[in-house]
Design goal:
- By secondary structure, this protein is of the alpha/beta class.
- The chain has 3 domains: 218 residues, 3-Layer(bba) Sandwich (FAD/NAD(P)-binding domain); 105 residues, Orthogonal Bundle (Guanine Nucleotide Dissociation Inhibitor, domain 1), CATH 1.10.405; 128 residues.
- It is 36% helix and 20% strand.
- It is built from 17 helices and 20 strands.
- Helix 1 packs parallel to helix 17, helix 3 packs antiparallel against helix 4 and helix 4 crosses helix 9.
- It is globular.
- The structure holds flavin-adenine dinucleotide (FAD).
- The site of flavin-adenine dinucleotide has 38 residues, from helix 1, strand 15, helix 16 and helix 17.
Length: 496
Amino acid sequence: MSDFDAIVIGAGNAGLSAAATLQRAGARTLLVERHNVPGGCATSFRRGRYEFEVALHQLSGVGLEGQAFSLRGLFDSLGVGDKLEFVQEHDLYRFKVPGQVDVTLPADRAAAIETLEEAFPGNRSRVEKFLDLVSNVTILQIAAMRGTSPEQIDPVLFRYGLRPSKDVLDEHFDDPGLKAALGVYWTYLGQPPSKLAFQDLALTLFAYLEFKPWHIRGGSQAMSTAILDSFLAAGGQVRFNTAVSAILTEGGQVLGVRLDDGAEVIAPDVVSNASLPITYGMLENMDVPAAVRDDLATRRIGVSGFALHMGLDATPAELGFTTSTTFVNLDTDDDRIHASWHSLEPARGVCVSSYDVAPIGFAPAGATHVSLVTLQYAHAWDGVPPSDYHRAKFAYAQTLLDVVEHVAPGIRDAIEEVDVATPRTMARYLGHPGGAIYGYDQDRTEGWLFRDSERRPHVPGLHLAGSWAGMGGFQPTLEAGARVARRLMRRKESVR
Ligand SMILES: Cc1cc2nc3c(=O)[nH]c(=O)nc-3n(C[C@H](O)[C@H](O)[C@H](O)COP(=O)(O)OP(=O)(O)OC[C@H]3O[C@@H](n4cnc5c(N)ncnc54)[C@H](O)[C@@H]3O)c2cc1C
């Protein structure tokens, strides 16, 4: 007799949405998390007078009340729709290249076109054409993902979807500043426009422009905690400070898990939110299937991040922050910026989140919580011995502050609290190889067209959900967990 109907390994976004979906659908579910809080990346922590948001810079897909296909429907189905307070960012971002570009894009198509025309006169019709293409490619891509047959899909998707974003930007525009301003979301996805599939850039831009960028009052931790509470209220059980150390199998079929205290828990289905290498490495009593070995051998561990979480004793206006999100890049050479993520050379581009332009409630009155992030591969830290780690991370942090001085001169004088996270920090807290925050490198060889980690499980009873099995980021992983859980429930129903 099974102890549970399902066990979920990891309480990141996908683990939480999977667990809540399963339990609310009537499957007796155990959620096991190695950390002491729910959320994975989607957490917060406290220093002095400040709470610090770990990961959420802009939540995509929330949409305005009543907007179809928005994430609000998912939150309702998880039982947390009325527990979360969303804080809207009215601008997509301010984008600054010192001495070259300084433009603030409103989160509204018509206003964004107007702003870009003012900043880059004579480009109105090109911008309109480009944004039309962004919408078309995204809508067609979603139709294709949902199973519309290729014959029924407008060929514009096949002409543009997999082209490098840089080609498509070059086809539409001449001005390097305008191309950089419209393409800067590449820094969220981890691949420069020369490598990033246009359909991925289009999806990201569309998601924020159409459904607006959002923060959550109380940070992403409020969301993670609310989903956990919903899971518990439905009768689910959770174990924190507990890692799964083995996935037990019998006759090539999942039997349950072993926890790091040695206890064995029996269940016919296991959903893993852990990385794929760790998940398959935990299989006991069977070899990793050849198809999985072949697949994993061709994949590259993706990018991690370097973050400065700061409590600043000044208001956003006093500091110079006019938008919740600001990208500052030293030039428009995106390949050069991406190359810098492989080493500890000074940061060349930083994403700034100022959480008190539209306050999320983490800083005291008159103060500001700001985080500075640049993506970075873990191997940049390979040559740094433990004895030099502390010095090296603060030295590198100074280079992010140097970049941000271009929008907030004198920011250093306002620092009251600061905490620095490197790829090693991410690896320690998430347990992922390379501290990767989006799973594998999100280039054109990855994605739903070429990889089937999530859709076609290779071990009966083992289900994969999260950034390592699909696309990284908040919206994709929240949706993935619920989707995988629904698929699992349908399978259970069909064998009954
Ligand atoms: C600094 C930073 C900034 C980011 N900015 C953004 C942003 O602005 N927008 C955006 O969309 N995304 C952003 N992301 C990425 C986004 O947060 C992640 O892609 C997403 O949250 C990953 O969710 P996940 O479901 O894959 O789980 P993860 O968050 O990766 O969590 C996995 C969980 O599994 C647990 N686990 C692993 N192994 C085991 C085991 N053996 N036993 C038990 N538990 C285990 C881990 O402890 C962890 O809690 C950012 C991330 C970071 C770190």
